[in-house]
Amino acid sequence: MSRSSLTRFLSGPFIFFTIIMMIKSSLAWIVIFDDIPVWKPLLTELPLIWIGFCLIEWFAAKRRMWIYLAMNLLLSGIFFAAIMYYKYYGVIVNYHALAQVNQVTSVKSSMFSLLDPYYLFIFADVLIIGGILIRRRIKLGSTERPNRIPLERRARRRVASVILTLSMILCMLNIYPNRASMSELTQAEQMGILGYEAYTILDRPDKPVPIAHIDQTDIDQLKQTTELPAIVEKGAANGRNVIMLQLESFQNFLIGLEVDGQEITPNLNQLARQSLYFPNFYQQVGQGNTSDAEFVVNTSFYTPPNGAATTVYADKALPSLPKLMSANGYQTATFHTNDVRFWNRDQIYKALGFDQYYDIDYFGTQDSIAFSASDEVLYSKTLDKLESMQSSGDPFYAHINSMSAHHPYTLPKNKVKLTLPERYKDTLPGDYLISQYYADEAVGQLIAGLKERGLWENSLFVLYGDHLGLPIYSLDRDDEVLMKELYGREYTSADMINIPLIISAPGVTPSVQLEQIGGQVDILPTIAGLTGVSLKDQLHFGQDLLHEGGNLLPERYYLPSGSVLNDASLFIPAKGYGDGTHYSLADAGRQDEGQQQMNVPSEDTTKISGDEEFPTIATPNNSVVPSSRFITKEQYDRALDLAHLSNSYLSQLPDRKATQ
């Protein structure tokens, strides 16, 4: 290879487009990763970019500039998707998320609200270069302007081969050692965003545990729950209707919240005071968000490692709450104002075994908010159906999904009933509070309607949030200041996934706030316990929150894979357990204040019981913290096993059509 050949090669489109792509990759890294060294994107992104460009040099005899531009557009799209997906979900997009593309058009207002204008500069050069190429082609006709000193194709290939070989070696060094990292963010940071995308395409899922080897005893041993004093006797709500209300984007901090003396959720505040209220309750959704919440609470299984549960598991013969209640003489129905085909609900509702579903065809589009009819219309028309179901004489199970308080929380002017201080105007937290004030008002109308129609007194009413409403990664600096004001401290990851659970059965449930931790997977067994329905033959991963303590909750989305909660702490892994971060749930902040992470020795699996004094471990800043507050290595491994067992079982269930 001559020096002149190398010089001419490097002065061509190869280096020109390399510089452009490095600028774009650096933009993506600035948005997604914290405190990155300047050289990191260069070391991790450049090899895969060069592999693509070298292939162009090898195989493209003509129209190389157009092919380079097409490659530029493809890579730009990947970086742009990574930015937007991270801003909403807090994780790195991968090819599995492509299954959701048809859903994006339905939530385009949410996507646009997260779009900072400068993100669009990532495509500016494509338009400019494309325009120049078109103009030149028009000017010169079908001929291309020859290089002054053309570089012979064989010489070009020799240079490209050397660069391609070096790039492939660097790719392997970036990807191979980081395959075992639990956190997708850590993988993407070590492999590069493009390297991570390539890895997820080639990666294969873990081998499932044979379904014959999975039973409730295995799950109970992994969960290691403890018995709680009976607050409500099992079966105390036997024979009552079950009405479950899933509130859109509703986080727990709203309960009891006042802003300048104004209650944000007065109706729910009153309901919480008069019911069983669980403030330490957490979401467990996946890529499907709201639809995944519907899946988890109706099955007591976890979401899949990739994809939305409503698409991954929709063809399976699922054990579920609707089927369980139907077997015990209940009518079942679900209510959602959107098109039932959204998130494949028409199929998942069949898999869950609901007798009836009511969607946009029933609710219409009048008084529309977000996607379809308002919460007021939802509740009014649902009440008509519930009254009709009750008149049949058999109890019913009804699952209701609210939608009006959907991101980006833009209500019609005639629905805005809350006046906030000027500092909240045109902010995400301000719009969120206004939307949830409206949602609370509508819930008050629903409860009043249930009482007026004689449905309240003989029903078990269960209310919970479907998922977070204010992702940390979507907040700008002004938003962060407002969130600190609302919480009285920094807004954390634990706060973000904290949703409320309220359970009310007049004459059965006492008015008490219960501090035990719970997750959406626990709703099914808790309802079964209250209604006296047996779970003897129903596999489930949750626990009865009124009779079992010592919870362990794997988290799969919005936080890196491997994240887990116990009664006192949230653990978020990096490469694994040893370099992860522990957060105390007592104040939802870092236990090791002022430090970037807490490294807890993996051998620290001390078990505490009774009134024994807590052992302690040293933190990086030499303070002393009770080790019992943190997730141990043994608990972490058990949580991973639980998530793997859930997916193993569900993936091997028979096709529901074959069982019909």
UniProtKB/TrEMBL annotation:
Q: Which Pfam families does the record cross-reference, listed alphabetically?
A: Sulfatase
The name of this protein is Phosphoglycerol transferase MdoB-like AlkP superfamily enzyme
> Segment Disordered: which positions?
591-611
- Report if keyword Signal is assigned: no
- Which organism does this sequence originate in? Paenibacillus xylanexedens
Q: What's the superkingdom here?
A: Bacteria
Q: In which pathway does it act?
A: Cell wall biogenesis; lipoteichoic acid biosynthesis
* The keyword Cell membrane belongs to this UniProt entry's keyword annotation: yes
Which residue stretches does the UniProt record annotate as biased composition, category Polar residues?
594-603
Domain named Sulfatase N-terminal: residues: 240-533
Residues that span the membrane, as ranges: 12-32, 38-59, 66-86, 118-138, 159-176
Family recorded in the similarity comment: Belongs to the LTA synthase family.
Alphabetized, the UniProt keywords read: Cell membrane, Membrane, Transmembrane, Transmembrane helix
Cellular localisation: Cell membrane
Quick one: where is this thing mainly located? membrane
Membrane topology reported for the UniProt record? Multi-pass membrane protein
